[in-house]
Amino acid sequence: MKFRTSCGHSLTVRRRTASRLVTRDFYTPAKSLNLSAFTENIQSTFFVAHALSKLDFGQKAVTAMWETMSAPDDPSKRALETALFGRFHHQPIICEASSKWYGKALIKLSDDLRNPQAVWSTSVLRSAIILTMYELIVATSSHGWIHHAGAISRLLEVRGPYRHQSFEERLLLEAARPLIIARAAVEAKRSFLERPDWLQIPWALDPDEKSLRDKLVDLSCLVPGLIEDRRDLARRKRNVAVLLANQCSWDDHWKQVGRYRCIASALVLRCDKLLKDVRAWKEIWDEQSNPITLFTLPSGASSSPDYPEDLFGPPTSFHNLYEANHFSMYYQVLTSLLRLTYECHYEASPTASDMTTCTIDRSLHLKPGVELPPTDHDDLLVERRKCAIQVCRSVPYHLSSELHGCGGVYVIMLPLLMARPIFRPQAEEAKYIDRVLAHLAGIWGNQTPQWFG
Is residue 168 within 8 Å of residue 60, measured between CB atoms? Predict the structure, then answer.
């Protein structure tokens, strides 16, 4: 008994002492604990989990390529991941850190561009693409992303289409094409991407690798050229009107009018053909994807402001965000093309091309909410309005953070910005879009992207 009692008492004391030591040493966090070593991994994991992986349902294995192609210490990669993390969590210190990484990335890119050997590497092109995406996330002005997209355009054009036949090089081309097209459309200048060699050669060795999304991007490559030709047509019309105002002979006037009508009619035919091809793409996509028409928001998921189902109809859902991205891209292309086709039809009509009344450019540079002049093709405007409604129907799905993190925000942002001017400022549809944009501004630190000035 004495032995057991004495031994038991001794053991009990030791066990309690060990328990107190474990609690003090391992479960009480130190006040000076520094977690900076884990910051990079947290931000990278957040970017992949909440943005990139939500779009990774195709053949491209985007997530794996992001992790393998980008070096961990790449400042452009760190800038993008840090910016997304800081903006989403409203952390000014982290956002400031992303700016510092951005500055380092600019210096490195500038040095690489001056290096005759490094300028041809994929890392230079990849950094330029990542920095353009960074500008789209930060979006403090409408100039940054356009500047970087211009650099990407020049790098690709110099490299040529044959260099992008390997899987890695082609993936970079596919990532860069939408950025180059957007810049070309904003500046109303055609892009080299519309040339047949750039539409065919990169996929010539692996034609099955050209996805349905790639084929839609092929069609969108033709839009900036049509916009440029539309602008040139307007310039030609002004010149003819000035010629008439200077009291030139009627023979010279009607020669100019006849030439103008020929050019306008040819442009109309090109717009109509592209519009037909885009609609045909949608028919194929509908057969393959078959989007769900009813959408129930998961419990606890944050979404947009109250969706007015009586105004737009039931919200649209999709199998995944990858398909939703196809949907959004299609309506971006179709919305731009419908407006462009309508304007070309108007300019080619006898009323617009008569020019004896000197009514110049009635359909150009209209401000949001201003109606276009009536023509025999008002069905194009009706379809354009239906496009905007379809975009609004997809908002609840895109903004469900439980389904796809913050990836849906950037998928739906541009279609919303394009749909907003279609409605009158005081229309209920426009008010809903304004509420959604204000909601998104709150998510991203009370700042709406200024992509187009």
Answer: no
